[in-house]
């Protein structure tokens, strides 16, 4: 099937079309899961003038037979960074992002910059690079292979599996670890999908050597002078920090794999206890690990019962309230929590 002269949808800005993108990605994932053979997915923006031609020019002839081009409903820059590892988990042989027809190729390429080196090496299962990002395509073919016809599908109307059309119940695809993670953060989805790929030693992606040496997005923290107030725990949108109270002590801990490197906790700490040791490496993101940051001897606050350093009667909030009974200022750390609640 060749492309039937679709009328390209207008390019939408990344802020307008996350919903379209999510629906399109879900449809593509379900379609890949229902396939008995592994397709080489080539993703293109809705405004790409001729993705089939670009795919023919940039893919090696050996991949033409399994290549399927999909027009996504919005700019590829709106796809979550987890999109490529998720469709690989679903069974795709590889994923190619066609950016030669993209209105914003630089921002899309930048969003994939840290994922691409991890997935650029061949997947041992399929022998093709797990992820390619193509910014420009060659003018002409090398070699004299006959020009193939490539399938071009629209992510808004992916084909229904043949079994379903005939009324037979399709076998339920194996759920992937990221299938129910639509509500997760972009970082959490990415790390979950990459870690699930890495758990299959036969695949060879993500590239272990790259993951071991390459800095990831997260930060390894240290905490000096922590008062166990818990502001950083509540302000972290990734759930990377926990405060555990046990036997008269509070333990502040960091889940390294969950840290996206936003630095919100550093800004929020009312006593500037947190600082950065170094960037986490991708290999540290891909395995669960807990980093102990601080142990504070605590007892319950005399007013609210919150863990409070033993040398203080009241926690910082209650101490602030007592000192400022009619004050209009927010207690230490509260500003960051208000900003987070308002999504600022
Ligand atoms: S915000 Fe600062 S003082 Fe409070 S628990 Fe976190 S590191 Fe400790």
TrEMBL record:
Residues 13-22 have a biased composition (Basic and acidic residues). InterPro entries: 4Fe4S_Fe-S-bd (IPR017896), 4Fe4S_Fe_S_CS (IPR017900), PSI_iron-sulfur_center (IPR050157). PANTHER family: PHOTOSYSTEM I IRON-SULFUR CENTER (PTHR24960:SF79), PHOTOSYSTEM I IRON-SULFUR CENTER-RELATED (PTHR24960). Transmembrane segments: none annotated. PROSITE patterns: 4FE4S_FER_1 (PS00198), 4FE4S_FER_2 (PS51379). It comes from the Bacteria. Pfam families: Fer4_7. The keyword Iron-sulfur applies. This is 4Fe-4S ferredoxin-type domain-containing protein. Its cofactor is [4Fe-4S] cluster. The keyword Iron applies. It comes from Mobilicoccus pelagius NBRC 104925. The lineage of its organism: Bacteria, Bacillati, Actinomycetota, Actinomycetes, Micrococcales. Residues 217-246, 248-279 form the 4Fe-4S ferredoxin-type domain. Keywords: 4Fe-4S, Iron, Iron-sulfur, Metal-binding. One of its GO terms (molecular function) is 4 iron, 4 sulfur cluster binding. Residues 1-22 are annotated as: Disordered.
